[in-house]
């Protein structure tokens, strides 16, 4: 049964998420469109006292009837709330997820456009959603109402029902088009687990979140007042006003006041007052509590945040992406006395917090992770894979000396440095002069695995521990020490190009192969699933004077469908990250089978909420380190810790 619904809630769906959206007292389902198999589409108008037919109502919980929707999490959560009954994800299929597995856009209109379907999403939909499904501004002409009902615009309401009907038509046509490339059954089981994790959510500390926002507001007000006192300006935050004031002091700022210009401007400041104003400007730019504000918007009535992870969000590799609070890019915490800092913040003693730990923007950033807390009577067990990508690429390339390191002491940075600089491994320890080589070993491991050169070295050398003049030499030395990984880049690119050019299948090692089928290049993985490159073609690459692979896909930054050129190192990166994702997926399924509740996961790390007195870190790391049947010889190892609030160990 194909389903699409239209709803109303005063909570903003985009910023708060569906779980918070359905908690609004005014949440309701307005329209329910459905179709059985290839049958006609029916729209049920729930605002007009219509009710679902008995067979449709019963089907919502019938385990033998598969319900499908585009972004099924929305329909599933809304229907569960409205009809007060569970909607197990095992009974659903998500067409948006199916599209993402094939490298297609994650939104209905985009998929229909890329697939060039005869049925297209109704373009009037956005205006109709804005009119009927979200609160409206009160005006004299609308009688001061905050919401539009069907009787306020009967013609528009009929259009809305037609829009609802058309979405079912388009979703069904997309699904039928994609059925020739089915999602593996075990991936639908994994998606069901993902939905349970998103439904479970993770608890937040509302006191800490509120105090963080208040602390930031007070600190920013203090900075602003100091800037006013010095400059006499009404609004020192105004770029135009501030530039004029600086010009009067003899400091021209033709390029604006962006942070990259600040070091030069501070050096050029003619006096202490001007320098202090620039410092205040710098400090005010740091006062960001975006994640705390996101927590406030997202938090549900039981203090849990839900729907934070998007299955297959990084659709080139199927890795998860962060949503709402964006847990995938949380700042690390490095301050001493983290527990004391968070308790000081919770108490509201902001002066003591600043005195003990430094400027509020820095401290609040350090404490973001600690806003995630376990339920009463529980603790977190946090565990992640050790150097997973380095392990996978070595396994994929049969770089045996690296695999031997991981089967032994595991110190890949030190071993790489010893290999590159030809010094004894045992001398790369703190206190020995050869320890200076460890930084170079670390940066090369992080930068060079995917065909990275000096620019990649510069990007990974965040602490500037390596002489930039040494980058080219280190790249050459790393490649010399890892000949099989270098061969893997070229073999992978050759296999992909050959598969497209000859419309055939080319096998590599460890169950990886490139396969051209019906206008798509598939990279078949050891786990049994496949990465997809849509509309692949071979085009001359003028930069390297050779033919190269081009395909179409979503640009994750620009959020648009466009052409992409790729090469061996990037293809290997996709393979490695995809296999690492599959290792995490396998561990998540095993942990769930062993009754460990996953509340969130970040990259290669899982966060488990475990009752005090049950479970153990040792058991969790043992489960995550178990051999995987489709990756014989891949040495996995996990490490972790227990904590009373989330943190980076």
From TrEMBL:
One GO biological process term: DNA-templated DNA replication
DNA-directed DNA polymerase family A palm domain mapped to chain residues? 365-614
InterPro entries on file = DNA-dir_DNA_pol_A_palm_dom, DNA/RNA_pol_sf, DNA_polymerase_A, RNaseH-like_sf
Molecular function (GO) terms listed? Answer: DNA binding; DNA-directed DNA polymerase activity
The UniProt keyword set, sorted, is: DNA replication
Task: Name the Enzyme Commission number(s) assigned to this protein.
Answer: 2.7.7.7
Which top-level enzyme class is recorded in the Swiss-Prot or TrEMBL entry?
transferase
Taken from the record, one Pfam family name reads DNA_pol_A
Q: Which reaction does it catalyse?
A: DNA(n) + a 2'-deoxyribonucleoside 5'-triphosphate = DNA(n+1) + diphosphate
**Which residue spans adopt a coiled-coil conformation according to this UniProt entry?**
none
> Per its UniProt record, what SUPFAM superfamilies does this chain match?
DNA/RNA polymerases, Ribonuclease H-like
Which superkingdom? Bacteria
Q: Does the keyword Transcription feature in the UniProt annotation?
A: no
Its protein name is: DNA-directed DNA polymerase
Give the source species. Paenibacillus tyrfis
**What lineage is this protein's organism placed in?**
Bacteria, Bacillati, Bacillota, Bacilli, Bacillales
């Amino acid at each position: 049964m194909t389903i699409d619904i239209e709803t109303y809630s005063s909570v903003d769906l985009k910023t708060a998420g569906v779980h918070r959206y359905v908690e609004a007292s005014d949440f309701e389902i307005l329209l329910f469109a459905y179709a059985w198999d290839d049958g006609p589409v029916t729209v049920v108008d729930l605002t007009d006292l219509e009710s679902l037919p008995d067979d449709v109502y019963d089907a919502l919980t019938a385990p033998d009837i598969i319900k499908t929707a585009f972004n099924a999490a929305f329909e599933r959560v809304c229907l569960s709330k409205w009809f007060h009954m569970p909607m197990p994800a095992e009974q659903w299929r998500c067409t948006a997820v199916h599209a993402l597995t094939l490298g297609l856009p994650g939104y209905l209109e985009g998929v229909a456009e890329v697939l060039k379907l005869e049925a297209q999403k109704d373009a009037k939909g956005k205006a109709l959603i804005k009119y009927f499904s979200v609160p409206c501004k009160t005006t004299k002409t609308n009688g001061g109402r905050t919401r539009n009902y069907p009787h306020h615009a009967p013609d528009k309401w009929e259009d809305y029902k037609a829009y609802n009907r058309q979405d079912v038509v388009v979703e069904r046509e997309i699904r039928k088009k994609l059925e020739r490339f089915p999602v593996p059954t075990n991936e639908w089981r994994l998606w069901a687990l993902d939905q349970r994790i998103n439904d479970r959510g993770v608890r937040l500390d509302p006191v800490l979140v509120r105090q963080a926002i208040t602390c930031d507001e007070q600190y920013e007000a203090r900075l602003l007042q100091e800037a006013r006192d010095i400059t006499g300006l009404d609004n020192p935050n105004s770029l135009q006003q501030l530039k004029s004031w600086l010009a009067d002091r003899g400091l021209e700022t033709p390029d604006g006041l962006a942070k990259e210009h600040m070091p030069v401007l501070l050096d050029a400041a003619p006096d202490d007052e001007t320098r202090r104003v620039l410092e205040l400007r710098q400090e005010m730019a740091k006062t960001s509590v975006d994640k705390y504000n996101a927590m406030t918007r997202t938090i549900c009535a039981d203090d849990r945040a839900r729907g934070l992870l998007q299955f297959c969000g990084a659709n080139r590799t199927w890795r998860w992406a962060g949503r709402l609070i964006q847990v995938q890019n949380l700042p690390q915490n490095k301050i001493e006395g983290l527990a004391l800092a968070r308790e000081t913040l919770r108490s509201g003693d902001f002066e003591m917090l600043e005195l003990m730990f430094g400027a509020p923007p820095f401290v609040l950033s350090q404490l973001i992770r600690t806003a995630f807390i376990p339920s009463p009577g529980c603790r977190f067990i946090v565990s992640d894979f050790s150097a997973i990508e380095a392990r996978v690429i070595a396994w994929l390339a049969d770089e045996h000396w690296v695999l031997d390191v991981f089967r032994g002491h595991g110190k890949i940075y030190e071993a790489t440095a010893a290999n590159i600089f030809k010094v004894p491994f045992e001398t790369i320890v703190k206190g020995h002069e050869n320890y200076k080589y460890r930084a170079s070993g670390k940066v090369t491991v992080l930068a060079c695995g995917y065909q990275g050169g000096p620019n990649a070295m510069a990007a990974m050398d965040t602490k500037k521990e390596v002489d930039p003049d040494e980058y080219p030499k280190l790249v050459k030395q790393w490649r010399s020490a890892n000949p099989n990984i270098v061969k893997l880049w070229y073999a992978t690119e050759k296999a992909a190009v050959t598969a497209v050019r000859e419309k055939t299948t080319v096998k590599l090692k460890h169950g990886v192969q490139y396969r051209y089928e019906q206008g798509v290049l598939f990279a078949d993985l050891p786990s049994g699933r496949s990465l997809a490159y849509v509309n692949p073609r071979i085009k001359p690459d003028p930069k390297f004077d050779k033919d190269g692979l081009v395909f179409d896909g979503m640009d994750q930054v620009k959020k648009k469908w466009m052409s992409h050129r790729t090469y061996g190192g990037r293809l290997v990166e996709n393979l490695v990250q995809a296999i690492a994702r599959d290792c995490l997926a396998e561990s998540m399924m095993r942990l769930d089978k062993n009754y460990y509740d996953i509340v969130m996961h970040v990259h290669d790390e899982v966060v488990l909420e475990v009752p005090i007195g049950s479970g153990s870190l040792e058991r969790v790391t043992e489960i995550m380190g178990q051999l995987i049947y489709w990756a014989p010889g891949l040495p996995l190892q996990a490490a972790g810790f227990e904590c009373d609030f989330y943190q980076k160990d």
